[in-house]
Every structure is written in C-alpha cells, then in structure tokens.
Design goal:
9-stranded mixed beta sheet; 2 helices; two-stranded antiparallel ribbon; alpha+beta; single chain
C-alpha cells in the first residue's frame, strides 16, 4: 500500500492542502496501536527499504519504523507531525564527543532539533540511553515491532 501523507516538509504541507501529493513512502506493515501510540513500518518508495531514511513529517502515525536486512531496526517519534526522536538499534554507535558506546541491538536515542530555516539537525554525538519515561511510553510499541531489542 502506498501512503502519500508524509515525507519532507514541502510534501507534508502539500499533502495536507491538496489531499495528497507525490508519494515518498510505502507502508510495509499494518499499523499497531499500543498504549495509545500508533506505529507502522514504512520504506521509501522505489527502494528495497534497506538504508532508507524515515520521513521528516508524519500525519497518520505517532511513530514510524524501518527495517534493514536483519529486521526492524529503527523507530522515529513524531510530535506535532515533526520528527523529534530516533530510537536506533541497527548498528554500533560511538559518540565522537564523549566516547560513549552503544552496541548493536541496544537502543541509543538521538534527538532532532528544527533549525530556524526549517531544516532539521540530529544531535548524533549526544546519543544516550532511553530514559525510564521513554521505555514506559514507547517501549511496548517498539517491542511489538521488534521483540529482541534491548533498552539497556
């Protein structure tokens, strides 16, 4: 199924205004709702889904997930339709600034900030573990899509 209500900012606002625009992503799974949070797996249209980014904006879910060759490997949280947080467990990650290391399979959290020009920057060198609040709120939905993920 192809969905046309998310992607970059221009496509997002065009989809809202016109009821649809160029489709950037396809739904890969049925939506799941756990503890009131809705999520589904998507992939960029025209790709095999591996190494594809998740959209910047979302209309129809609170979280989108992506898969790689090993299964579901990343989740992105959207607040006010904008990306805010990535939960990633697809690879080893080391912060360049403080040397903090996260093993593949263990979630590391990266926060997105929106710049004054409307673009987004991910604070990749400030990755951290999931907070207790994040585990309680988002953990059950993440586990519903990837039961083997570890939070710490």
């Amino acid at each position: 199924m192809i969905i046309c209500d998310m992607g970059n900012g221009a496509e997002f606002f065009k989809a809202i205004a016109l009821g649809g625009a160029k489709c950037e992503y396809e739904t890969v799974s049925s939506a799941k709702i756990v503890a009131g949070i809705k999520g589904k797996i998507v992939k960029r249209s025209g790709t095999n889904g591996s190494h594809s980014n998740l959209p910047q904006y979302a209309v129809s879910s609170d979280m989108y997930f992506r898969k790689n060759d090993f299964g579901v490997c990343q989740a992105r949280v959207y607040l006010g339709h904008k990306m805010t947080i990535d939960f990633d467990w697809s690879h080893d990650h080391t912060n360049k600034t403080d040397g903090r290391h996260f093993e593949r399979g263990v979630v590391h959290v990266q926060v997105w900030k929106q710049n004054s020009d409307g673009t987004f920057t991910r604070l990749s060198n400030q990755a951290r573990m999931m907070s207790n609040e994040e585990m309680k709120k988002y953990g059950p939905l993440i586990k519903a899509f990837c039961h083997k993920v570890k939070f710490r």
